[in-house]
Design brief:
The chain is an alpha+beta fold. Strands 1, 2, 3, 4, 5, 6 and 7 form a seven-stranded antiparallel sheet that branches. Strand 3 and strand 4 form a beta hairpin. Helix 2 packs across helix 3 and helix 2 packs across helix 4. The radius of gyration is 19 Å and the shape is elongated. The relative contact order is 0.14.
């Protein structure tokens, strides 16, 4: 974990002092974390991940960067999330945030089970491709019908929601793309 933090800090061309100051911790503590000499509280790691602009999950993940990431379906967590809130998802590749891309399959809950009405926002741009079924993409106040084979690209910072069309549900290939701005 410390090695990953150090590598990201160096990629960003920042000193230990700069990161420590931004996190409100001592340079000595950051050095010990980077060198694996101390375990750190999640709150501290969360501050570091925020300053480095990477998810906390990336910091905590014990996997190292690879040129090729194979994730057979049998080893992939099948579904994460709460279907009653409108969706669950499968993370397709546990790539690092260096790539700026997070491929996911969103399973849109069938209409009869879906309780979600509030839109989402997030900092990443989003590309979607309808794999199965159909949805209404509610985006920034407008509603767009989408079916198998349709795609869209949009800013995640604007309110959006996948709304089920019927009781079949849908599967949506979603790529979350870090926005450099």
């Amino acid at each position: 974990m410390g090695t990953k933090i150090k590598e990201m800090r160096l990629r960003r061309k920042q000193t230990q002092q700069q990161i420590a100051d931004a996190c409100g911790i001592s340079k000595s503590l950051l050095s010990k974390i980077e060198n694996g000499q101390t375990a750190s509280a999640i709150a501290t790691l969360s501050k570091i991940s925020d300053v480095l602009e990477v998810p906390l999950s990336w910091v905590l993940d014990d996997k190292y960067e690879q040129d090729l990431v194979l994730l057979p379906k049998a080893r992939r967590e099948s579904k994460i999330g709460d279907e009653n809130m409108g969706y669950s998802y499968e993370l397709l590749a546990n790539r690092s945030q260096f790539s700026g891309l997070e491929p996911t399959i969103v399973h849109v809950t069938p209409k009869r089970m879906n309780l979600r009405q509030d839109s989402y926002t997030h900092s990443q741009d989003e590309f979607i491709y309808i794999l199965e079924g159909s949805i209404y993409l509610s985006y920034d106040g407008d509603k767009h019908f989408m079916e198998k084979g349709d795609s869209a690209y949009f800013q995640g910072s604007k309110p959006h929601l996948f709304i089920p069309v019927n009781d079949e549900g849908a599967q949506v290939l979603t790529l979350f793309i870090d926005n450099p701005v």
